[in-house]
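Q: I have 157 residues here and want to know how they pack in 3D. Can you give me a structure?
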Amino acid sequence: MMKILITFFLVFIFFSAISAEEITNFRPCLNSKCTIKKLYISPCPEALDGNPCEFPAGINATVIMEYIPHFSAQKPKLRFYNVQLLLDIPHPFIDPDGCLYTSCPLQANVTQKFKYESVTSNLEPRGDYLSKLRLWDDSENAKYEDQCCVLMEMKLV
């Protein structure tokens, strides 16, 4: 019985990873000291055509990122933003503890993985958004550039 459960779990993980689409239409933020190797969002079939992901209200969404920080951080902070004109508006209700989404501490020049799961809000207005994902060192001696930051287009439908 245990072998069947383990096999089912591994197959589930395999097919869950396949359903995530690689996002290619993202760009690093200015002053980001990070290399984004791969970025996946699930569900996002629009990525197959190079289009922004479309999310209906109430859907589960997952962001998976493979990245190389070029800085170290014991306890990184995390924030998602909607970029409006020149103002970054943080998404509410997201725990800013970066260690919940990636392994800590961050080690400079070592490939790491990031995973964030959420349900899209029914409260946000529908429309096109420029979204920003920012993971940064919040320690006393950190520089502003000690961050992984990526911008991507999204649609709430």
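Q: Anything worth noting?
A: The radius of gyration is 16 Å. The longest strand covers residues 60-69.
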